[in-house]
Structures are given as C-alpha cells and as structure tokens.
Amino acid sequence: MGKLDGKVAVITGGTSGMALAGAKLFVDEGAYVFITGRRQDALDDAVKQIGRNVTGVRGDAADLDDLDRLYDTVRREKGSLDVLWASAGGGEPAPLGDITEAQFDTWFGLNARGTLFTVQKALPLFNDGGSILMTGSNASLGAFPGWSVYAGSKAVQQAWARVWLNELKDRRIRVNVLTPGQVATPKQEELFDEATKRQFESLIPRGRMGHPDEIAAAALFLASDDSSYVNGMELVADGGTTAI
Fold first, then answer.
1. For the whole model, what pTM was predicted?
2. How far apart are alpha carbons 10 and 187 in whole angstroms?
3. Among residues 32, 71, 150, 229, which one is catalytic?
C-alpha cells in the first residue's frame, strides 16, 4: 500500500530536478499527478519519464490564466485534489547596486506572486484534510552575496504558511515549506560553473550536493499522513549548510 493511494496531487514546475523526482515518487506511492511546465517538449518528456497516472499541463505559474487552465483540467479529469506542491520558481544572482526592476518583477512575480495564486486558485478543489507544500530556499536563511532578490522572494513563504494554516484550520488543510539547499539539478548546471559548484559544496557539512531524490523523499513526507501533525513548519533539507 502506497503512502498516497487514491490521492490527487498537483506539482508545478514538475518537468525536471526535484519536482520531477517528486512526481515520480508520488506516482509510485499511489497518487495521480498533474505536473506543469512552460516548455511543451520538456513537459512531454517528463510525462514519458513518469510513465503512468500523470497529466501534463503546459503553463507558467506566474501567469494567472495558465493557473486557471491548470485547475480547470484537474476539475475536469479528477474533480478535486489532495496535495499541492507549489514548486515552480527560479532566480539569478545580482548584488545590491546592480539589481534591476526587471529582475525584481520577474522573480517576485514567479516565486512570490505565482506561489500565492497557485495556492489560492487551488482552494476550491481541495479536499478537507489535504496538504500544501511550497518550495523555499536556504538562500532565505543564509546571507549569500548576490542573492537578495531570490532570497526575499522565497522568504515570504514561511510567513504565508503560518497565516494560511490558521485560515484553513477548519478544513484541516496543512501548509508547510520545503526548503532545499544546494541540489544537483539540470538548472544548477545552467547557472553555475565548476568552480562555483565546488565553492557551494565547501559550505555543506555533508560534503556533497543533495540529490533530487532526497528532496522528493522529504516532499513525500510533507504530502502524506506521515506528517499529519506537522503544520506551519519549514523543513530544511540542505545538508546542514544553514545550521552552522
């Protein structure tokens, strides 16, 4: 018996890395999963990799019309949902003094505004007793030079989780934040050269980058009844980077 048998889950940004690993694991644990991605080719490839019990919906989490289309698809195909992992996000480095309005608008638009409306628009479909998790970042806990816009756009999630669980307590919907650190993903390969990756690894007490499957396992914990008494918390999975 799987930990998510009979559950319906939505994972935004589910075409690669941690979220794709999570989608595979959720399906293996009995869930039907809807994933989103901005590129149709990547979405098709992810659906193929997952293999069963999955629907891909092309869309951008920063676009409210795309979010409406996502939830219209969930309503039409399944009628309701039990788990939402708001994972779509991104960022780029820019030190104070060089930050542009476009960078601020882009990353707050996706990481903050997009996450808020991803959650809000899901509520009419949510079954009571469900689980919401948002992908944070340990950049919001550390003081990594150049990453203030990204850190700020992720830090709002801890406040939201506490407020929203209080607003949703009558429906017994839990809200938590999953905060990864440095994880070896395709996106990281795009952003960082080898020297930067080695520098990041030097900060990790575990001595290595995390793997997408390790973050997926933490997401499964928050999505399932294994975490039934965990609410409004931030689960940090960063190898101890921000603990020292």
1. 0.94
2. 21
3. 150
Sign of the CA dihedral running 205, 197, 135, 82:
negative
- β-strands 126-135, 81-86: how paired? parallel
Indicate if the alpha-carbon torsion angle 113, 118, 121, 123 is positive or negative: negative
71 as an active site residue: the answer is: no
Q: 128-137: string of b/e by CB count within 10 Å (b at 16+)?
A: eebbbbbbbb
Tokens of 65: 């019309």
Tokens of 109: 């638009």
Question: Hey, how many other C-beta atoms are within 10 angstroms of the C-beta on 196?
Answer: 12
| Main-chain phi, psi angles of 13, to 5 degrees | 65, 35
Listing DSSP states for 160-194 in one string gives: HHHHHHHHTGGGT-EEEEEEE-SB--HHHHHH--H
Alpha carbon 80 to its chain's center: 20
pLDDT, tens digit only, all 244 positions of the chain: 899 999 999 999 999 999 999 999 999 999 999 999 999 999 999 999 999 999 999 999 999 999 999 999 999 999 999 999 999 999 999 999 999 999 999 999 999 999 999 999 999 999 999 999 999 999 999 888 999 999 999 999 999 999 999 999 999 999 999 999 989 887 777 767 788 778 778 888 988 889 999 999 999 999 999 999 999 999 999 999 999 8
3-state secondary structure of 143: coil
What is the residue type of 7? Answer: K
